[in-house]
Amino acid sequence: MDVTFKVRRFNPEADSPAPYWQEYDLEMPEAGTVLDGLIQIREEVDGGLTLRCSCRSSICGSCGMRINGKAGLACNQSLQNTMPKDGGPIVVEPMGNMNVIKDLVTDMQMHWDKVRQVEPWLQNSGPEPENEYIASNEDMLHLNGVMGCIMCGACVSDCTALEVDKNFLGPAALAKAYRFVADPRDDADAKRLGALDQYGGMWDCTRCMLCNDVCPKSVAPMDRIMSLRDKAIESGLDKTYGARHAQFFAKSVKHSGWLDELKLPIFSFGIFNIIELIKMIPLAIRSQRAGKVPPIFHKKRPGAEYVTRIFEKVESRKQ
Ligand code: SF4
Ligand code: SF4
Ligand code: FES
What we know:
alpha+beta, binds FE2/S2 (inorganic) cluster, globular, binds iron/sulfur cluster
């Protein structure tokens, strides 16, 4: 089959280094993958094309890149499913949120630093067991999903919160943190959750779902972050801005069927946190100019009792 690749190139050693696009027309077997195509380009057309890969089987996590605007593994994307319907080129770029070293190779140091920050190893202060630490099958099955992470960085690449704040730990590191918080053999939960309760931690995720969407291993990092939040609140870490925001949000929707936007910042920051509330004024003015003015008197929506019932049902399942 005929395939066209449009590849984002960057050579830091060029006279005036700047990213540019380059197209390659190939004839490839129908069963090929995007990675097969890139390797064919490197071997037959342009030996200078730089990319990272190893296992070619979705195991090592080294071939992360953006394909048609979305991060993923080049080795598990078949040409058949990736070729645009209009016959246009397959567009390949380096991952986002990381510096590009050359062509499709990004510097993943920031990713590793963040993972290291969550101390990704078992910590247990109790006496060492005679043989091994015992964990139930059920507990380990629950962890299986998150342990499937291959550290490819696809979620980090497309994380919208990380895009605006490099201090955010990001989906891969937070999913890794959950892996240890939820491990019954680890007893450092309080310390771990306390560290994640800070600026840049679990409350900074905007729940855009992109990490869940792009993860090639179904780790569902966003769901793990939400579970971390639940565990934090259950363990009494409910005073930070993020925790208060989440609690008031749920309380408002539960009782009235919709969000009381006027009270949300007051409850989130706390009525006496005048400085933070004053900082909200420009946003309030911009919202007002855009015609987004929450009512002063928040009233229940018709049918709010059904919403309340949904909340009660979910809450009873959690107990
Ligand atoms: S859901 Fe949260 S962690 Fe995942 S990509 Fe969006 S902002 Fe990032
Ligand atoms: S969570 Fe998924 S996308 Fe993120 S690094 Fe792990 S395997 Fe890759
Ligand atoms: S080459 Fe190993 S995951 Fe793609």
